[in-house]
Amino acid sequence: MRVLHVSAGNLYGGLETVLVTLARYRALSPELESEFAVCFAGRAEDELRAAGATVHRLGEVRVRWPLSILRARRALRSLIDQRGFDTVICHSPWTQAIFGPVARQRGAASIFWLHDVATGRHWLERWAARVVPDGAICTSRFTAASLPLIYPQQSSRVPRLPREVVYCPVAPAPAVSQTDRAAVRAELCAAPESVVVIQVSRMEEWKGHRLHLNALARLTSLQGVSGSVSKWTCWIVGGAQRGHEARYLEALRAQAAKLGIGPRVNFLGQRGDIARLLAAADIYCQPNTGPEPFGITFIEGLYAGLPVVTTAMGGALEIVDGSCGIQVEPDDPAALAVALSRLIEDRELRARLGAAGPVRAAALCEPRAQLRALARALTKLGLGHARDTQVKIVEEPSP
Fold first, then answer.
1. Is residue 352, in this structure, part of any structural domain at all?
2. Does any domain span residue 245?
3. How buried is 153 (Cβ within 10 angstroms: 0-12 exposed, 13-18 middle, 19+ buried)?
4. Less Cβ crowding at N or C end of the chain, within 10 Å?
5. 1 near 382, Cβ under 8 Å?
């Protein structure tokens, strides 16, 4: 099956991480011949090319410039005809709205990959809903449950949109030696006896940074008999990619200073050595205040042998269980502080939960298994696609 993955390419997050993993490990699923198309140059395209993938540029698209949409659609039509793709996968409502009609026009199976939680209210989702794909890949059971908010079942005679759940393929990072671990900690001013709590995520408010800082500020009042709660350091990893993210990051710095924990919270910005940072840390904490569609960073933390602390919502419920981490109720800094203090004080608990992490991560996301699951899902979704279905082609942007 010749597959074309289509994405915007202007940002880098979980969606782009999945695409790069598909490119890097594509040899594990020889039944899929995958290529990639992006609209914008950037890190996503660079990493796809570095992984040895074939990447096509469709041209920059601005919704307010209808001609840019028409040019990009024309480029995709030509690409499908020249390369003979059997399946075109659009990796967001934006790409589905813009490019979904083209796949159906050229006789390829049209698949929508839902990476986020649908609401049905955003104008891009409403625009994407005008062209119904042949099927959908959902990144978790949680996201699959929200798919009908974009593509509802029309009637008892019209079946619901076929969908398959495929967890994101995530590979374990190469092992980091104790020497390297000590070097990272020294570089980032973490004392050998300090317990390092790390969070790796985009600078989005729903990722729970504020809640995380509020919980850390409570730790000094929760010291146990060992007094070890006071020996912690926090690394916040993630850079601002847009204006509102830069403002949010500055607000977090100010919050840490106001809470009196500024010297103990290290904002590391965008990093290219996430595996080294995780290997040098002791606890992974990401207390989302909004539901995570899946949670690739949770898987990366588990692979690194870190116990994971998060809030009980969204995709995290499908990843973190009592064998490898601790879930707390959302928006409860006191409960989060108690969970962190337990792990900071109890080295044996950290070791036990951490040891179960790699096994749990591999069971959910090992790349060979997930790429084969993707191949099965695409075959199942693409076999029955209706080429004669009436498709409403939207050449102008939705108002």
1. yes
2. yes
3. exposed
4. C
5. yes
Overall number of domains in the chain = 2
For residue 389, being part of any structural domain is answered with no
Cβ–Cβ under 8 Å, residues 160 and 153: yes
- Establish if 337 belongs to a structural domain: yes
Q: Are residues 361 and 374 in the same domain?
A: no
CA triple 129-135-139, angle to 5 deg: 90
Query: Phi-psi category of 373—alpha, beta or left, where left has phi over 0 and alpha has psi -120 to 50?
Result: alpha
Using one digit for the tens of pLDDT, what is the confidence trace for 313-351? 999 999 999 999 999 999 999 999 999 999 999 999 999
Distance CA 150, CA 125 (A): 6
Cβ atoms of 217 and 260 within 8 Å: the answer is: yes
Asked if 64 contacts 98 with a C-beta cutoff of 8 angstroms, the reply is: no
Q: Are 137 and 114 in contact (CB under 8 A)?
A: yes
Arithmetic mean of pLDDT, 7-27:
93
* DSSP H or E segment with residue 328: strand 325-328
Output the CA angle 252-292-247, nearest 5 degrees: 25
Three-class SS of residue 110? strand
pLDDT of residue 11: 85
CATH number for the domain including 213?
A: 3.40.50.2000
The answer on 342 and 374 residing in a single domain is no
Condensed to tens digits (0 to 9), the pLDDT of residues 109-125 reads: 999 999 999 999 999 99
Q: Which two tokens stand for residue 246?
A: 């830069």
CA–CA dist 338, 242 (Å, integer): 34
Domain ranges, residue 234: 178-365
Q: Are residues 346 and 378 in the same domain?
A: no
